[in-house]
């Protein structure tokens, strides 16, 4: 966890409390090329593309409504609509939150 | 010359009322099939309007035109290559921004297009007012406000479509402009593409290359690798300027444009009191209450379907068997008579007594739940559990269907995003005990061994599903995909659309399942007439008697079970000459027999569905695997149970 400024911090989307919102800073997938692992990079590309196509682009405000129990998916509110996001996906989305 | 056959494609996000508009337009003139060679459903219909025969294609509900899912690939290829005369973009007025993101991509495909601004009523209820004339001006395409459920605006939509196709109304659509540094690169690449005559529009192709679209890259690479490397270089430059990958930058900017347009045309009055649908949503996805609510709803649904199905099924089979003497009189008791009744008719009866009583209500409820929005909530709640076998929440829906009948379960796997997940889900579905399997479990083990043993069999089956699902997930090549799904607002389903969807899916089922059921039934009847059943049972006896410890005749019943599983029980009664199975089989034999019947083969209708969706090879593989597996498990169970 990186603390920047007074009370702004960068967290994973899954670390947000219910009802809290933040601005997406990055999606950690698909950028790690190197080691010639092209397949892996491709998958990351598709993964990130899919999130972005659903409106989760850097700079967007996203609100966590709640999460399903036992580490289930997250319900988030973004760009005027409601999405269900698997935890594995939400885990790689980084957001800037004011606390 | 005036052309009198025209093609219109409907495109839009999921749950925007696209299927309601499709049904409004085409009525009962529909045809449901698959896109050639793909496990993606294709709905087509025709209508007549002002002297035209209009062919309407309902494209799958999607959010983008990337290559992530088969649906997206099929849609963009259809629009760009098949070139329909017009695309109607159906938009949910209550979620404008997300919908416009897709609209902008359609516009980039440079296809003649108009927009149906649908669900205006829901938008109004949410306090959203949209200036559709302004939207029309901003996008440069005609925008018709519609309320598909009540039919409002549908006529105007058709009228406008024809006007545009006839060229009476000229369209000058606006395209999303990206940042200068990107536009300049798009232009450079587009100029190169114009020279090579690619099937997609040059600007669109250029954007896709910058977005690192796999498919487009692959195709251009074949003929002009220099264009791809130029695009890659440009993409890296953009990445350096923005600090994000080029595809991220383009997607963000496209969303920015969509958002700007949405903000410009809509006026939102915040609502004071949370409406009913929000409260229902909160309750049905509640961390604790959501689960009992789901369990009770599903149990009620299953209970009513089985009760209804049971009655309807026995009523139907009484009706059909009432015809037997008449057939006997007409065709005589010779071989022809036996083949026609025992072969063809028995096959039809087998199909009809399953299809009508169980599948019709199943489909009806499925579409009802889907349309209302509850299915996506179930997927949300079950995501975690389904992940244990490498699938995500949506897979729970075909699995749930499988408990009724494996056939709609297999077809229902189309809701999964990738081919791999479809196959994996279908494999799991074929292991789920369907209504017929349940009848065997309850009728044999439940009645003669004890309810706790019947329950134990169920638990064993669920465990097997879990273990095999996990193994399949580990062995199948490819990566799992996670859940990402829109949960649209709850709404009252449109009954007429739900009924039509049920009706056309029933037709599809009959087309898939009936021919194989009838052929299978004829083959078995032939074997019976030729007195081959006894020898076959003897051939099988090393497996049935020695390995499984069952009576010889069970070999025959298991063959009949291929047609439909409950026949194993019915045949057992016929061949043993009693329905009091306790007299002729030991409890261990009954348990082993049921276990094998439960696992050994997806019935012939399910095999047909698998063939249809995944081809012969995979269907055969699943079938053979499950037969071997059932025999293996049955034998082990027999030895273990003998110890107890």
Provide structural commentary.
The complex is a heterodimer of chains A (99) and B (644). Chain A has 99 residues and is an alpha+beta fold. Chain A has one domain: Roll (SH3 type barrels), CATH 2.30.30. Chain A has helices at residues 38-53, 87-90; strands at residues 2-4, 8-12, 21-27, 61-67, 74-78, 81-85, 93-98. Chain A has a seven-stranded antiparallel sheet with strand order 1-2-7-3-4-5-6. The longest helix of chain A is centred in the middle third of the chain and has 16 residues, at 38-53. Residues 31-37 of chain A have low confidence and may be disordered. Chain B contains 28 helices and ten strands. Chain B has a seven-stranded mixed sheet, with helices on both faces. In chain B, strands 7-9 form a two-stranded antiparallel sheet. In chain B, α15 (335-372) packs antiparallel against α22, α20 packs antiparallel against α21 (451-475) and α22 (495-529) crosses α27. The model of chain B has no long low-confidence stretch (mean pLDDT 90). Classes of the chains: A alpha+beta (99), B alpha/beta (644). Chain A binds chain B through residues 26-27, 30-31, 42-43, 45-55, 57-60, 66-73, 75, 79-89, and chain B through 63-64, 66-68, 95-98, 101, 211-212, 214, 244-245, 247-248, 251-252, 255, 259, 262, 285, 287-288, 290, 376, 379-381, 383-384, 387, 392-393, 479, 481-489.
